[in-house]
């Protein structure tokens, strides 16, 4: 699931107005009654952050969080009773206009903002503009803010992915007034100190997945592996003709990974397949043939391919199960606006698709036996 925080004006949940509060726009009953005692209880349990959020969001904002907790708890229980775990996402950074930045300015640097170096998405890099953490300041406070953020995430989800995990090793810092991210440079991050602090407070074996896509260096791999965290591989990245040793190529997959057909930053499986050059499509066809995968619909072939990976978990976007094209792409990192528009229509995931997904899951040996 994408982050649950209140999104920005571009609808991006990765620049949410709070790293702790959840978006009332997801509520089924936004006007449900909330008692004074419910608010008092919520404030006591979430004292670390709820006052900061109320100062930014105003009157009624705490009641909205009570409603969200009520509905989310019901959803979580419904899923748990059926053997379904909820897998969430934590953006590494917060937004400049967030309640977190307003309440804790001492935890952030001045004059530099977040981004990513030039990569496969864009030769200008990605200029995110988020405030950068002052890691020494966080260290002096025992990383309390990060510990509480993880605590909150583990209340909402059974497993969480930390976006841009490589930023804990080294992060791309861009001058505040730069027009692109090309003028940035890497600066050293806190390493495992944040996770050690979290384990001291929350217990060992943190249910975290490391988003380790992009410019990944041996120190990033060592941190991920030393913490015992699964990393990520993406089927769409596995067909570069000049990269036979890519970790994304199916023959290079290992068990301690999460395999994706594509993420929210990628085209849908159908849109991606239909845009392939003849050379890359031939690579896909060869891989499918070698694994005996025959499907009339290419997106189902790619789902079967992902499910054939030795990776521990296989993740498929709803858009790929539905066979939607590029018009349903969630986000294009190279574009600043017009993103985050796709929504699942009620009834779109029907019984026919459920049986198809079950067939693929069972055939690949991924069906959980209860």
Record keyword descriptors for this entry:
370 residues, alpha/beta, three-stranded parallel beta sheet
Describe the structure.
35% of the residues lie in helices and 13% in strands. The chain is built from 13 helices and 10 strands. The chain has helices spanning 36-45, 50-57, 61-81, 99-103, 135-140, 144-156, 193-202, 218-226, 269-274, 278-290, 298-307, 318-321, 351-363, and strands spanning 87-90, 108-116, 126-133, 159-162, 170-175, 185-188, 208-210, 231-234, 257-260, 313-315. It has a domain at 230-370. The strands form 3 sheets. A 4-stranded antiparallel sheet has the order 3-2-5-6. It has a 3-stranded parallel sheet with strand order 1-4-7, with helices on one face. α1 packs across α3 and α6 packs across α7 (193-202). The protein has 370 residues and is an alpha/beta fold.
